Amino acid sequence: MNRQSISFTKPNDEWLKAQVESEEYSSKSELINDLIRQARQQQTQVDWLRTKLEKAEKSGFTTDTKEQILAQSKSLLNV
């Protein structure tokens, strides 16, 4: 595992210390690694959503009313 030296603002350092003191995490390193994992997972979800939105935008727009769209969706569920 690589070692890094990083600096924190006072509020961030106090928050990190409080998390460790509450025994939620055993060390600041464990907490930082967990935060990075969460950020990476969130980025994966954002990338997935962005891809879906781009695909939807490229597929064009509809002139159907919301009632027509709902009826079409319901008919697909009953098939």
Write structural notes for this entry.
This protein has 79 residues and is mainly alpha-helical. The chain has one domain (10-77). Helix content is 70%, strand content 0%. The protein contains 3 helices and no strands. The protein has helices at residues 10-21, 28-58, 66-77.
Summed over residues and divided by their number, the pLDDT gives a mean of: 94
> With helices defined by DSSP (H or I, 4 residues minimum), what is the helix count?
3
Order of helices and strands: HHH
The fraction of residues assigned to DSSP E strands is under 5%
Compute the gyration radius: what is it? 23 Å
What is the straight-line distance between the termini? Answer: 54 Å
**Poorly predicted tracts of residues:** none
Instruction: Indicate how many domains the architecture comprises.
Output: 1
User: Count the strands?
Assistant: 0
Write a brief structural summary.
The protein is an all-alpha fold and 79 residues long.
List keywords for this structure.
79 residues; elongated
List the helices and strands and how they pair.
Layout: H1 10-21, H2 28-58, H3 66-77
